[in-house]
Every structure is written in structure tokens, then in C-alpha cells.
Amino acid sequence: MSAPERESEADPGLYGPGSVTWQCHGDPIMWLAGVRALYLQALHPRAVRGVVANSDFRTDTWGRLYRTADFVGTLTYGTTPAAEDAGARVRRIHARLTATDPATGETFRIDDPHLLLWVHCAQIDSFLHVLRRSGVRLTPAQADRYVDENRVNARLVGLDPADVPADTSQLAAYFEKVLPDLAAGPDARDVDAFLRHPPVHPLLAPARALVWRPLAALAYASLPPYAHRLYGRTAPGARTVTRRLRLTALLLRAVPARLRWQLPPGHILKAMARLGPATRPSPYTLRRAAAILDGPGRAQHDNGGGYTRWRSLRRRD
Predict the structure, then answer these.
(1) How far is CA 193 from CA 2, 219, 284, in A?
(2) Cα(198)–Cα(194) distance, rounded to whole angstroms?
(3) In degrees rounded to 5, what are phi and psi of residue 120?
(4) CA angle at residue 238 from 237 to 242, to 5 degrees?
(5) Is the distance from CB of 301 to CB of 148 less than 8 angstroms?
(6) Which one, of 105, 97, 15, lies nearest residue 56 by Cα?
(7) CB–CB of 29/37 below 8 Å?
(8) Rounded to whole angstroms, how far apart are CA atoms 171 and 130?
(9) pLDDT digit of tens for each residue in the chain (317 aa)?
């Protein structure tokens, strides 16, 4: 085996098993969190116009969702070159796409940093919110670390990590700032209708009613109250939503992990084969690590600007 092949086998990627992201992104509730992110992202008129104008989501529903999950899986569990290549492909695609603002008629670029930042923050907020609300017990420091770690993700889609929220308080401040720009226009309502009733083969219509609709409804219900007001649809009370999220997570986690991890295509299984079975991702690992990570330990990283290695270091001062 050549030296590059040995290095590739040992490569933990941009996050690595010591990160909060690695331990959390293998949880099956992430699929529901992804649907919540779509609902939230659609509330930015320009961001959703960019999707509607340049996407085949209406005709290739499941393919688009799968490709998005594949991208997140590659960034989290793939090797460094694979993650960098995936980011480069996304940047190339975005660089040649434009759309027209439905309100002003102005043409804008899809890779506008303001739009990329909204999409990133809506995704990270949704992932973190659903993980914690469904029963993943992240400490405040671990939640901050999750937001910070994913500035690597932001870099790969074309953002300067220095301009991206680095903890939960900065993330909340960003949403306060952008709230006046949000609206549920025709494009957002199209996304809402689509997520509630995506096209499927007639033979799969019963499964859509039995499985998809309750999951999509729960994803919508988990949105912040301002999102419900903008969409004009009510949701159950907060306690009811939390109970349903926890029950749904329990049911999803009951599916054997090695079966679940076939989707996206084997990223976690490949990472474990590359790095060893001890790197198996689990939020429960974070409970055991909390005393080290949030007490005498600290995460060392490069602020999202390059090839990142996340690990816990004991304080020496």
C-alpha cells in the first residue's frame, strides 16, 4: 500500500470522531431536522426564489433530498479530499446560477454571501434544535461547539468563516437581525405545499400518508412561532411537539444502526472501516465526554479556515 493510500485510510476528515458534529450527524432524527431546515430556508424570498428557479425539486423530489443528505454525509464522515471536492463542486454550480427577485425584478447571484449565510444558519439551527429537542443531551458548551465546528461547512460552500456565527448566542442574534427580511410569499407556500404532499408513485401513496406526512407535519411544528405566523398555519403546543419529537426519535433509533447508515450511501460505515469501530458515532458518547470537554478539556481547531482536526485537549495552564 502506498503512502497516500495509508494516509487516506487514516484520514478522519474535516471533523473527526472527537467532534460534536461527528457524534450527532449519524442520528436518524437528522432526516426530520433536514425537512425543518427546508421549511425555514424557504422563508427568505431570495433564497427560495433561487431554489425554485434553478432546482428540479418538483420532478426529482427524493433525488434532491438524497443528494443533500449525501453532501452532509460526505462533509461529516468523508475523507478530507472527498469533503473538499464536494464543496468545490457546490461552489462551481452556485457560481454560474442566477435568479430574479420576485419583488424588484433584480437579477441576483445564487452564491451571494447573504443568501449562503441564511441557508447555512437555517440548516445549523434546525439540526441543533431538533437534536436537542428530541432528547440528545448536549451541554451548552457542546451546543456552542457544534455551531463553531460547522463553520467548516460554511467555508466549503463559499463563506468566510469569520462572518459566520461561532456559537449559539451569535446564531440567535443573526436570526433576530434577519427576521424583518423573512416572508412566506408564493414560492415559500409552494415549498410548503410540496413538502406536505410530495409526488410519489401511486403504489407508494399509502406510505406517504402513513410515514411522510406525519414527519413533515412534525418538522413544521418544530419551527419557531414566527415561522408559523408567516406561513399562516398553526401548530400544536410546544410540549406536545417536544413529546412527539422524542417519541419519533425513539422509534427511529430503534431501527438497527447498520441498516440506517446505508443512507446516505455508507458514509458512516466507510468512516468506521477507515478509522476503526471505536469511532462509531453516537450522541451518548458526548455524555461521557462532557466532563472532559466542558471542564478541563477544550477543543482545538483552526477556526474553520483550513483542514480541521477537532479533538479534546486537557488544559496545561
Answers:
(1) 52, 14, 36
(2) 5
(3) -60, -50
(4) 120
(5) yes
(6) 97
(7) no
(8) 15
(9) 444 444 456 899 999 999 999 999 999 999 999 999 999 999 999 999 999 898 776 666 677 778 888 999 999 999 999 999 999 999 999 999 999 998 899 999 999 999 999 999 999 999 999 999 999 999 999 999 999 999 999 999 999 999 999 999 999 999 999 999 999 999 999 999 999 988 878 888 888 888 889 999 999 999 999 999 999 999 999 999 999 999 999 999 999 988 888 766 789 999 999 999 999 998 878 877 665 444 433 333 433 333 333 333 333 33
CB 317 within 8 A of CB 55: no
Residue with cell 470522531: 17
Distance CA 248, CA 28 (A): 10
Asked if 99 and 107 touch (Cβ cutoff 8 Å), the reply is yes
- Tell me the angle at which helices 267-275 and 61-77 cross, rounded to the nearest 10 degrees: 20
Distance of alpha carbon 203 from alpha carbon 31, whole angstroms: 23
The model's pTM is: 0.87
